[in-house]
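Researcher: We're teaching a course module on how sequence relates to structure. For the next exercise, students receive a sequence and then see the predicted structure as tokens, so they can try to spot secondary structure elements on their own. Here is the exercise chain.
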Amino acid sequence: MNNKNESVILLHGLARRKTSFLIMEKALTDAGYHTVNFGYPSRKSSISTLAEDAINSALKSIPDGNQVHFVTHSMGGILVRQYLSQFAIPMLGRVVMLGPPNQGSEVVDALRNVPGFKWFNGPAGLQLGTDKLSLLNKLGPANFDVGVIAGTRSVNLMLSRLLPFPNDGKVSVESTKLEGMKDHLCLPVTHTFMMMNPRVIKRVLTYLKFGHF
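Model: And here is the predicted structure for the students to work with:
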């Protein structure tokens, strides 16, 4: 495949590193995309600060004239929503979000006051709740081309009990949905490992090329 005039920016989730996207990065590179697997300090700042700093930095690695796609995991998708609510990307292509807490996570609601939660998840983690005044409910519908993949399996049954079913152990399927999205797909994968799953990777490639899963 030849996608040399198209770039893909990968944005990992909260408390993860860019290494979580290494398998996805290789698949995209093998498919001909110029791929930027961008790591950012997800626990250090608010979502608005992380979004502006990370995406502006990642965009500097995009060749002039290239179309820019995004593939995100979890909070990475929220960074894209936040950024696009404030800034335009002239050559923006498609966005694929994996397990995004677009409507927040009840896990945050239940655990935000537990000792150690704020230390481990940082300022951004506290912004991922479901309350009506949360940042997530102020970002509005998508005005860009986005498809969402939700997981329906969990490796953490304790956290799953805090969420509506079905869920992926961190985010419910319902919460991944975003008004204005072009497509939505559920797969039997977990939140933690979905970005490494061959079925997920195949569907990501399909969406980037065709605009549907």
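Model: If you want an answer key for the exercise: The chain has eight helices and six strands. Residues 6-210 form a domain with the Rossmann fold fold (CATH 3.40.50.1820).
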